[in-house]
């Protein structure tokens, strides 16, 4: 049987609310668990493609499951050809638009299609795309930290070999941001990259004011200082910033990145597989990043991102945040502060007992 020619037989979506190792506090609240939707694309040749997406809040889970199930039903009987399927979904939702839950659903399905192709030929997605799995340097991603209460965790990150630590800012005033940054820099030393994420919480003037005050602490990047859609504001902050600006997790699909790059919105970019259009969208953005000589990192989804960064010409950093660890049969591994793509396809398999336990 030729498993290189797959046809979609059915699509299943399940919602879980998975525990995470530590809460993630940001400028707008605290994420205490991971509301995930698990996607299984079953094919006519008993090959199943898998992916998951992150709903941010439990209230998104039911509509996401419904959307993915309904879109999947429309795709039943079609060949697993991701570029063709993306074009069909683009046409289907052109008038409605890509952003929001629809874009998340489409991106999640695309990831599962590519996973199925890798599973069918027993190859990692990286190899299917013409590359070789390799270690990608990772940074450990924190929320707004308490330098005293979180010291043990931060030192554990260093013991695991992480060469980068990201923390959140913007949940207090400038003095609080400076206190946290100063304390963490002192704890991790001068040789570890320290990133600060404002999660879109500032206006351009306040962002510039805070960045100037924080410059002495040798920050590797400032992430999303202003609203993601405010490209002019990003460019204004970047123009005078002594620290590199990072953004992209909330830019939607390749067109969003093309507009951001054209506006000079950031020094670095970090697409989110769930918002960029899955694997298909990522590949197109990677080409834009190469053409513009912009370093490209990942946002979330470390398992899949390790495959994608291995074939990204300007690969920079991979973010580590263990959103899916509790429901994966083989969670991602940190080796000397790096993550390497593994398994066939995206390398995902569910721990079904855990899935049953955390069904939402």
TrEMBL record:
This is Mandelate racemase. The keyword Thylakoid does not apply. SUPFAM superfamilies: Enolase C-terminal domain-like, Enolase N-terminal domain-like. Its cofactor is Mg(2+). Gene3D superfamilies: Enolase-like C-terminal domain, Enolase-like, N-terminal domain. Keywords: Magnesium, Metal-binding. The keyword Metal-binding applies. Residues 147-244 form the Mandelate racemase/muconate lactonizing enzyme C-terminal domain. PANTHER family: ENOLASE SUPERFAMILY, MANDELATE RACEMASE (PTHR13794), MITOCHONDRIAL ENOLASE SUPERFAMILY MEMBER 1 (PTHR13794:SF58). One of its GO terms (biological process) is carbohydrate catabolic process. One of its GO terms (molecular function) is hydro-lyase activity. It comes from the Bacteria.
